[in-house]
Amino acid sequence: MNFNALLDAVRRQPEAVSVSATWTQGRAIFGGLMAALLYEAMREQVQTDRPVRSLAITFVGPAAADTPIAFEVEVLREGKAVSTLLGRALQNGQVVTLMQGSFGSGRASLVEVPALPPVDLPALDQSGPELPYVKGVTPEFIRHVGLRWAVGGMPFSNSSARRMGGWVHLRDAMDEPLDEAHLIALVDSWPSTLMSYLRQPAAGSTLTWTLDFIQPLGHRSASAWYQYCAQTEHAHAGYGQASAGLWADDGTLLALSRQTVTVFA
Questions:
Q1: Dihedral angle over CA of 221, 222, 224, 228, nearest 10
Q2: How many angstroms from the chain centroid is the CA of residue 63?
Q3: Residue-range domains of the chain with CATH
């Protein structure tokens, strides 16, 4: 199933969703997809006038392909403007992904601060070629996602550059409107910046992830190309921290991301 078909599946039958091996990253289902599916289950439990503002995600364990996953949502509180929810993805009775979500309606405020401008990336047509899917070399989910490198090193290139980024899009998305589930997958499609520091392949995984959405998203296409750039802030003792942003092609900020990553090298 493509991305939107999986979103439909979790809306229809959240207690049993199977994801094919085409969406894997190593031995686990691609984390961006797991987070997007759990978010979609949450979204079904919230008033439509309360868009998501922030998600805090913990990848507790690897989720296996072709094995049913149950998505459970608990509404912790519904205030006058903000709803707080807790979501769990379970496989074989074990939690594999946890998510705390904050959804809130807008309000009048005296504080108005414009977003910082995006980093200066080469234009799409001046960036590197789209990363091809190569069986046994790239993660399986790359067949669904397109990346074009513009700054920083590739994974395992022994690069000392702190920044990594370029352009990203969903290959199999149609011209449907962009929503937060798409953004979750787009942001997490890029490898950790820490991987580019290594000389040879090694395992790594996201431990925790915080994603903030800049609302409203505006009217954009899920199939368009979006700008992404991440920066390594620190790494020591097998753990590293990086922050990132995702922008539309006109420079509009759409999401801010922060991850703690484990590296087994």
A1: 120
A2: 16
A3: 1-105 (3.10.129.10), 116-265 (2.40.160.210)
Range from 92-96, 113-117, 197-201 that averages highest in pLDDT: 92-96
Max intra-chain CA distance, the chain: 53
Residue range 3-10: mean pLDDT, rounded: 96
Rounded to 10 degrees, the C-alpha dihedral 116/54/170/90 comes to 160
Q: What is the pLDDT of residue 129?
A: 94
Q: Computed from CA positions of residues 165, 212, 204, 222, in that sequence, does the dihedral angle turn out positive or negative?
A: negative
State the residue for tokens 């590739």. 154
Question: Residue 182 is encoded by which pair of tokens?
Answer: 């798409």
Nearest-angstrom CA–CA distance, 132 and 130: 6
Which DSSP helix (H) or strand (E) runs through 170?
strand 163-170
